[in-house]
What we know:
heterodimer, A: 76% helix, B: alpha+beta, five-stranded mixed beta sheet, 9 helices, 18% strand
Amino acid sequence: MATKRKRAASGRKSATSATKVHRSARAAVSVATNPKRTTKERVAASADAPLAICEDDKSLQAMLEVLRNRNEPVKVRLAALQSIQAASFSVVAFESCRADYIATLRSIADDPDPEIRQRVLGILAREKDGFAQKKLLEGLENPEKALVPPEKALQLLGYDLKAEAYAAAREIVSKPPNEDARREALRILSADATAAPVFEKLLQDKDETAEIRQLSASALQALKPEKLQTYARKILMDASDFDEIKATSLTALTQFGDEEAVSKDEELKKQVDEMSTKASPKVKQSARRFMTKYSR
Amino acid sequence: MKIEIQINNSVSPSARFVSWAPSPCRVRITDPAGLTGSVVNVQLRSVSAASSGAVAFRRTTGAFTDTLTLPVPINGTSVSFFTAGKFGRPSSSNGDVRIEARVGTALGGSVTVMVRVRKNANNLTPGERDRFVAAFAQLNNQGTGRFTDFRDMHTQVSSPQAHGRAGFLPWHRAYLLDLERELQAIDPSVALPYWRFDRPSPNLFTLEFMGVSNALGTVRFSPTNPLQFWRTDGVQGINRRPFFNTAAAPPGLLTEAQTIALGTQFAAFRTMEGNPHGTAHVSFGGSISQIPTAARDPLFFLLHCNVDRLWAKWQRQNGRFNPAVAASYDTNPSNPIGHRLPDTMWPWNGVTGPPRPPTAPGGPMASSPCASAPGPQPRVENSLDYQGTINALSRMGFDYDDVTFA
Lengths: 296, 406
């Protein structure tokens, strides 16, 4: 009986304490949504708003209104977006708000502010939202309609890979508008089994940047690991190749290499052993890890 | 003379890991040659460099001491004792502490152990960092390894099991422990580090560790970092765009002190799911900013490790380890299945179909050679007493560098 009483009292305390937290969250929403407060105050208050957004439809609607209102300062709108996004982690409580949230995001996907467009399309793309995917593909096909730069569109399409994304990526790789777009297109193609020859070529091309060759090694390791092992060996035996790609090759062989084959490759081990004392610091470090694994 | 020391009551070297919570141990004479009488006094002590881990001992209960002398029968009967890491003296590599057993001055046996605890990621040594990323990359094995199960556990469909209600903290504690044990199966010297998101962590956002994001949010890695081969859901790489200077802490997050001050009752404390937890997630754009994609980013696990550390610290400060004490948990009757104390937790329980998700990836909770709890199918109530404060058998074998045992 005494225990029961104790528990009931403790439960009341718990409710009081939780209520205080909720009350302060609701106060934060009223500051965040009040146009008479300064931008700084509204941004700061938004951080404390997520709890109220989850528990109270009025608070959610007020924050969504700030997000939708193109006359509000961008900083305030971004803070509101971030706050609603944080609330979405409380998934059970947020479930009833989800439809309104998604509808609002779609309605501002063409916002005049590029940062808002980018963030909103990012959220929708991670939800595998068909509306956003369509807009992103349209922008790649017709740059005049693009809501975000091609590299961002490709990156976001990568959250839910479909045939249309591969087609768009191939197109970009053949005629890249810039280096970032080419790299993001290649990342998409790294999931396409038919693209292995592209990565074989790029990995061997010493005129390519270290970043593209690194990406190609990673792609090839996933698509055709036996090919990467062959090329990695070739790179390591080639005195004229660059340190960055040598370190990547060593990391690939140490981490994912065919242990039996590499252990028996005395010529390669001898070469790497030399690197472990004579190469640049990065290569030395990777060579030592390789030797620790394979010289046992 | 030969003396056998068993750590975590096991002769296996794989069990020679301790934390701040006491590990049950045994000592026995396996070869009495040269000994006289039926019982000898065996002295246990730990030997290590000043910068390495250190352990202490006790017979049953009470204070730990640097040395412990036990009367041990020479007929091979085991004598029990406890060992634990000395708070503030964690190991930085496997076996950097030696426990010696002597009779007089004669050394009868020794074992090396590691004081393995979860540390602030910003303070890891290069060796600790490199072992962690190598084990993580291996677990993922470019999207084909065991990590895929962990990726599939944390999705939109499964999120009601893990978010938005009282079970948020227990579920994620089990999730992290399962992952950590899988990492330790690859490299037993690894413990999951935490991202202390209320403090600057410049050593975390580097090419050698969690990577450096470009303006677009594509994360780059050093060619020596195996995370350069990271792949999830078929796609190469990680998208993460910080909305803050990664040399500083993200703005707007509750600090550790503010989080712990949310209330002394679990119902108040668990509001930390919004701020700092949710706020830390959305301090980035990219995968980590939303539930369906968050587990694509290895940083997610360091973020959650800090969330769990905050809970552990709050538990220690308020004595909230006992599920029978109302303030330790939110026992609101409206809690859905998976969020009530006696409920088993998905996916470890293998239960599928409404109200549980349609599949249960990953099977039972990974076992550990160092601790038997929380068992293959943990219940919500099993997650609270992680150090074995209430019941020694509840000890899960993990600890945080800044959360004491007592």
